[in-house]
Structure formats: C-alpha cells, structure tokens
Write a structure and sequence with these properties.
The chain has 15 helices and five strands. It is of the alpha+beta class. It has three domains: 38 residues, no CATH class; 83 residues, no CATH class; 207 residues, MetI-like fold (Orthogonal Bundle), CATH 1.10.3720.10. The strands form two sheets. It has a three-stranded antiparallel beta sheet with strand order 1-2-3, with no helix packed on it. Strand 2 and strand 3 form a beta hairpin. Helix 4 crosses helix 6, helix 6 crosses helix 12 and helix 7 packs across helix 9. The radius of gyration is 27 Å and the shape is elongated.
Length: 392
C-alpha cells in the first residue's frame, strides 16, 4: 500500500534532518505492509510507551493510588493513636541486621530536657532494641471501608514503644500513618473533582462550539466571568458558604463541587476551539445531512474526536486539583478534622519556629511534590502521544 500524499511529502521534505526522518519512520515501523492501516489509538500507545518519563510518572501514580487504597493496612497506627510520651519526636532510623541475622528494628527513644529553653530533646537509646514485626495487630479499621480488621503491615509488640518513620506532631501522632491515610482524601478529591469538571466542561465546550450563536456568546461570557475572579478569594468565598454544621464527609463533597465549579472552564474553552474546526469536517456534515440528531452528532462524533485531548487535560488537571485542596485545607477552609488530608497536615507547619525545631512536619510536601510531578510527566507524555503523526 502506498503512502498518502501528505505523509509522502513529510518523509521526502528536505527540511527534515535525518534523525527526524528516522523517528517519524519508527512511529509506524514493525507492523509490516499494513502499517498505515493501524488505528490511531494503537499509534498513540506505541508512541506513549517510548516516553520513559511518562511511563515513570504513570508507575508512580499507580503506586500512590495503591498506597491510598491500602493506607490503613500499610500505616502502623490509626489517626486516633497518640504517644503523649513522644510529642514532636524526630524520625527514627530503621536498622536491618541484628545479632548477625536479618531483623528490622529501631532503637528506643530517650528523652532529655534542653536547659536553655526547656524543650524536650529525643535521642536514640541504643541500649534498647525494638524489633519490627510484620502483620501485627493494632487499631481496628475497615479495609476498603467494608472489611473490619486490625491487621497492620508492620509494628512493634511493646505498646509503650513505637516505630516513628517520619516522627510525630504536637499531639504525638505518627506522621507516617497520617500521611498515608491523608492521601486517601488528597488523591481522591482530585479524581472526583476532575471527573465532574470533565463532564461539565466537555458537554458545555462541545455544545458551545457546535451550536455557536447566542448560546456560544452566553457560554463564553460566563466562562470569562468565572475566570476573571482571583482564584484564592473565590475559593475562600465559596468555601465560607458551606454550612458550618455540615459533617466532615459533606464538607469533603462540598469542596469537591467547588473545585469542579472552577475547573471546568479551561477545558470548555479549549474544546470549543477544537469543535469550531471539527464541525466543518465531512463526516460531521454527512451525519447532519443523513438526519442525525444534534445529540447523536455531539456524543457519537465530536466528543470521540476530542477524546485524546480530554484525556490529556484530565491528567494535567489532577495535580491542580490536589494543589487546590491542599491550599484550601492549609488555610483552614477545606477539609476539617477529624478528616485528614495533606493540606490539613501542613497546618502544623505554619510558623517559622515550628519549622526550625521540627522540620519533619514538612514531610507531606514531599508527597505532594512527587504526586504533582508524576501527573505532569504523565500528562506531557499523553499530550505528545495524542498526535502520533507529529515529528518531535
């Protein structure tokens, strides 16, 4: 089968350097004589798997969500567990070899008082070795919010001691456990928020570009009005409108709706521009002449034609949702205790004195940064792969 004219011109263009020609040829290599009959989705997949940064980002995202799914099992303690004898205790180091055999353990914690400011100082007590055991019993919880159990991945047998991988906060709560359990809200609020934003933005954006006229004018003015407000004050105003007597669960869904209400505008604006060009395509005109309804044209032709773009926008919008929830909770306008998120945990690190003395309270920042970078790497890879015929 011969190359289409447009593709033959690209491959024969003298402006392309030899590496570009090789890369473009590699996009469709290895499929034999039927290489130009391969579906676009397969070409997108082939190009995506060649992007190592995107694959790493995707793998990290999978690990983060699996961690959030099994957070209560992986965390040695619950949100309610407190160690009043270890307030603001620093992270403990894990040792692997004990008495010539592999046995994970931590040293005990010894408390002293700084005579200058009367501040507690914790040091490792090497005379006390505390073995770490796996699949231990601890605080009760519901696995997947359904199965009651009290089995945790690891822990210690002595209730007077603890394994504190990331230290404790001002109430003696284990930061590692709180970060793992807090990821359930910080990561899922992004999924729920983006899902709502995609539904609203896709329908409004495609309909605006397809119908045009007065509907398009009104839609675009509404989008411009929403986007004209400063983001943080708008969040603060909408969050303050939530009833104070709402339960933490209702507040969680309220914050999700607020983030979705703001986030759909960017997707709608981009899809409108794409649909303005797609509605003049031959297959759309043919469907209209064949008597297809507007809903059929929109949901059967236009939305599938923009699906790759929607997927890219979704992966790039997820980190923005995570950062938005973190900012709201950090300001005290988002998730409220007893629920915990990464933003709520960062409230502990709001003053310079705390950061100077207890820097491990900033540990949630590392998880936020990893999640945001992973989503950005994945989004960039999907954006490049969504146009498999481009030469990069």
């Amino acid at each position: 089968m011969s190359l289409p004219e447009s593709r033959r011109l690209v491959l024969q263009s003298p402006a392309l350097t030899e590496p570009a020609e090789v890369e473009l040829a590699d996009e469709v290599a290895g499929i034999g004589d039927n290489r130009f009959m391969v579906s676009q989705w397969r070409l997108i997949g082939r190009r995506f798997v060649r992007n190592r940064a995107a694959l790493v980002g995707g793998a990290v995202i999978v690990i983060l969500y699996l961690t959030a799914l099994f957070a209560n099992f992986l965390a040695p303690y619950s949100l309610e567990d407190r160690f009043f004898q270890f307030l603001y205790a620093p992270p403990q180091g894990i040792h692997l070899i004990h008495d010539g055999k592999i046995q994970p353990y931590v040293y005990g914690i010894k408390e002293t008082i700084n005579p200058k400011d009367l501040r507690k100082i914790y040091t490792a007590d090497q005379s006390k070795v505390i073995p770490i055991h796996f699949f231990v019993r601890g605080s009760s919880y519901r696995l997947f919010a359904l199965i009651p159990t009290d089995i945790h991945l690891f822990g210690v047998d002595d209730p007077s001691q603890a394994v504190l991988l990331l230290g404790t906060d001002r109430q003696g709560r284990d930061m590692f456990s709180r970060i793992l359990i807090g990821s359930q809200i910080s990561l899922t609020i992004g999924l729920v928020g983006v899902a709502l934003s995609l539904i609203i933005g896709t329908i409004v954006g495609v309909a605006s570009g397809y119908y045009g006229g007065i509907f398009d004018e009104i839609t675009q003015r509404v989008i411009e009005l929403i986007r004209s407000f400063p983001t943080i004050p708008l969040w603060m105003g909408l969050s303050a409108a939530l009833p104070p007597h709402w339960s933490p669960l209702l507040t969680y869904f309220g914050i999700t709706v607020i983030l979705s209400f703001i986030g759909w505008t960017w997707l709608a604006r981009q899809l409108r521009g794409k649909v303005l060009a797609l509605r003049e395509e031959g297959y759309v005109v043919a469907a209209e002449l064949a008597g297809a309804s507007d809903a059929w044209v929109i949901f059967r032709h236009l939305i599938p034609a923009t699906l790759s773009h929607i997927i890219v926008i979704a992966t790039l919008a997820l980190p923005n949702m995570i950062l938005a929830e973190t900012a709201l909770s950090f300001l005290g306008l988002g998730i409220r205790p007893p629920l915990t998120s990464w933003g709520v945990l960062l409230q502990e690190a709001q003053n310079i004195e705390t950061l100077a003395n207890y820097p491990w309270l900033l540990a949630p920042l590392a998880f936020i940064a990893v999640a945001v970078l992973a989503f950005n790497f994945l989004g960039d890879g999907l954006r490049d792969a969504s146009d498999p015929y481009s030469v990069s």
